[in-house]
Amino acid sequence: MENTYQDEGRMICADCGHDWSPEESGSTEGTTEIRDAHGNILTDGDSVVLIKDLKVKGSSVTLKMGTKIKSIRLVGGDHEVDCKMDAGNFMLKACFLKKC
Description:
The protein is an all-beta fold. The chain contains no helices and eleven strands.
């Protein structure tokens, strides 16, 4: 996301507070498998379901558990899944998703 910064060699997401090392970012092309909360491998175009309510920081919007998301797109970085929903465009962590 655009609100990330580096601190002592680690990257930090100001939106969610997650931190990771740049080597973990998945920037190497095609070598990192992205898995959902149940260990299923995700690919571009998959449909997924949210497994818990997610509050969007800086907004009053809450993404509800059970919401189906169609045609996801996988991207590198901490928030691996880019998707479009009725509430807007979001980048989500795969650990909050279940493959349909």
